[in-house]
């Protein structure tokens, strides 16, 4: 369950060009069908602020308790619903870590070089899509 904090903040997703791609972590949990995108690594205490397309909540912005900066995105029902609406879902799953994995989030040795090379394109596409939903 995501916590929610009342505020007057108008959050803005970061430009992919400003992100340190080595610190962006994608993780997918099969059991809950949840994709997490951590912009600056894991472990930042944050609350969830829902973003709607006018019909339903599409994703949650993860916003730091400490400074109200957006630190990530949480996408519930990723395969069940989101992947039908977002054409880059399969590439996100290729790049995502899975629970129980023993691999490093920075080295990503389990991914072939051609998959790692997709990161800038995939992350840029995802951020554009998320911005369009929020517009």
Q: What profile does the largest beta sheet have? A: 5 strands, antiparallel
State the end-to-end CA separation. Answer: 25 Å
- Gyration radius (Cα, Å) is 14 Å
The unreliable regions are 1-7, 103-107
Q: Strand order, main sheet: write it out.
A: 1-2-5-4-3
Instruction: Assign the structural class, choosing from mainly alpha, mainly beta, alpha/beta, alpha+beta, or little secondary structure.
Output: alpha+beta
Number of domains: 1
User: What helical percentage do the residues reach?
Assistant: 25-40%
Count of runs of 4 or more consecutive helical residues: 4
Overall pLDDT score: 79
Strand content: 15-25%
Secondary structure topology:
Layout: E1 25-29, E2 34-38, E3 46-52, E4 57-64, E5 70-75, H1 78-85, H2 89-95, H3 113-116, H4 119-134
Antiparallel strand pairs: 1-2, 2-5, 3-4, 4-5
Would you mind describing this structure in some detail?
The protein is of the alpha+beta class. The protein has one domain (23-134). Helix content is 26%, strand content 23%. The chain is built from 4 helices and 5 strands. The chain has helices spanning 78-85, 89-95, 113-116, 119-134, and strands spanning 25-29, 34-38, 46-52, 57-64, 70-75. A 5-stranded antiparallel sheet has the order 1-2-5-4-3. The model is unreliable at 1-7 and 103-107 (pLDDT under 50).
